[in-house]
Design a protein that fits this description.
This protein has 347 residues and is of the alpha/beta class. The protein is built from 15 helices and twelve strands. The strands form five sheets. The chain has a three-stranded parallel beta sheet with strand order 2-3-6, with helices on both faces. Strands 7-8-9 form a three-stranded antiparallel beta sheet, covered by helices on one side.
Length: 347
Amino acid sequence: IDPPAGDPLRRLDPATGQRGPEDARTPYYDVVNAGKTVVAIDLKSEAGKQAFEALVRAADVVLESYRPGVLERLGFGRECLKNINPCLIHLALSGYGQTGPKRLRSGHDINYVASTGAFSASGIPERPVMVWPPAADCASALQAALAITGALVARTRTGEGVYLDVSLAESMLAWQAWGLTAASAASSGAGGAPRRGENLLNGGAASYQVYATHDARFVTLGALEAHFWANFCDAMERPDWTGRQHEPLPQTALIAEVADAIGAQPLGHWEALLGNVDCCYHAVLDYDEAARDPHTRERGLITGGEADSGTGGGIGVLFPVYVDGQPPEPRPPVNEIDAETALKRWS
């Protein structure tokens, strides 16, 4: 359900930040909303309230993404929705949650990630680095879907609905258990606090690193286990590196030696030398290369690119689950209908 003016993403290009005409729809909107049926309802109007109530009565799930209190001011708070449909799964997705001192605070992905401590361990030593795509947006979407799925399973046993409070910030916070544990250990003198570019998984280890090639490309090495690191050292004809895998972090000297070696040859050389070595190596691909990758093409998850593809010319990625050996079904294009049609279909 969208407001009468539609979702702001309809006109937004998230790569350039430019907005299109009022009546335009970007391929980004079509990609994200493929498979959905969208109806515009004005919840401030009496007709809109009646239409929404009828849809809630027939619904399994309501997922709302207002700030705390907004849906209640519109006349559809938690208790109201429960009275309309006692079996309803109602999930409220907000920035910082329905309670607490930050509950009404504005924010976007960068702020939610900042609130969790994640930036203290992500990036280069000099400063945090933003990730793409926005991590809190994606994490909270998955968290919401997981919570709803669990609630639906529980309802088959209890017959009762439930109210779920999920936030973008806390969805990212849930991913910080390792960092919080390390910081706690450091405060008690039992370990080192996570620091950008200094720890095992964020740039401090030679065996888990991004290296630049001679032709300004990049490769990744994830040889954490001893046998992977040994295979890499053998392929590089550097047996003297093998026993240095567990030097104290950050391994500045060893990283520099490996970087010099990788930087002496272009990407093609390393693809030929390391591509088939069992050492957790992979080149850093750009988007075009990732889409053309033979493995990606064989798995068949990327779709779209043509105006009549169902994604409005955008490139979509199908639900990444094979069921009984079968790939996911294509997603139909987003379908926009009016409130009258929605009521006939679902109420």
